[in-house]
Every structure is written in structure tokens, then in C-alpha cells.
Specification:
single chain; 139 residues; alpha+beta; 3 domains; 3-stranded antiparallel β-sheet; two-stranded antiparallel sheet; 7 strands
Length: 139
Amino acid sequence: MATKDPVCGMTVEPATAKHRSEHADQTYFFCSGRCRERFEEEPTRYLAPTGRKHAQGAATGEVWTCPMHPQVQRAKPGSCPICGMALEPVTPFGSDKANPELRDITRRFWVCVGLAVPLLALAMAADFSARRSPVWLEL
């Protein structure tokens, strides 16, 4: 019976797993030595319930699937058992609820825009201004 690597969430076969660790009288199996090392450094971090924010609630009869593994289909939101990504509805629904993934990626986008605009201005200043003024700006 396959188990999940507690660090990365990858599916591991206990019979063929090369990396394993004992904690609290239980054996845990890992996909790699690096995952085992991380687990041994902080086992409680990986055994605690995850704080991942998945979409809440599911309409009756709605099917949820992994974007990377379409063969994985569930009746409710959660994580893909193969890669750990958040499951998404097969038929997207228009919901008034805030999507935590969308909010997170939107925030990242605007932070990157804020950091990129000054760099763009400095890089393009030579094309739009007097010959030596960009040198003074870069000092």
C-alpha cells in the first residue's frame, strides 16, 4: 500500500522506499534523502495539519481534478495525492467568495511590478534623456 512522503506529499511505495525514518514509534517513508533530512530536523512541522488554503465548499455533483494529473478526480476540494497541488473544479464556477490562490498570485504580481518599474526606468533613462544624466542617477 502506497504512503505519502510527509515532506513533499509524493506517493511512496514502502516496499521499495530507500529512505525511511522512525518517529514516535511510527515509520515514515520518503522519496529522497533530502526529504528525510528535512523531516528529521523538524518532524513536528511536517506531521502537523497543513495550513493550505483550498477552495471551500463544493456544489452537489461537482467534480474536482488536478491540473497536472487529470486522471485524479474527487467529489470535494483538496490536494492531489500525486503532486500535492490544489484540486480545481472541472467546470469553473462563478463564486462571490474570495479565492485565496488568486489573491496570493495577484499580490505577488503587484509586488513584482513595483520592483520592476524603477529598474525599467533606470535602464531606459539613457534613451530618453541627456547623455550624462543616467550616470548621475546610477551613483
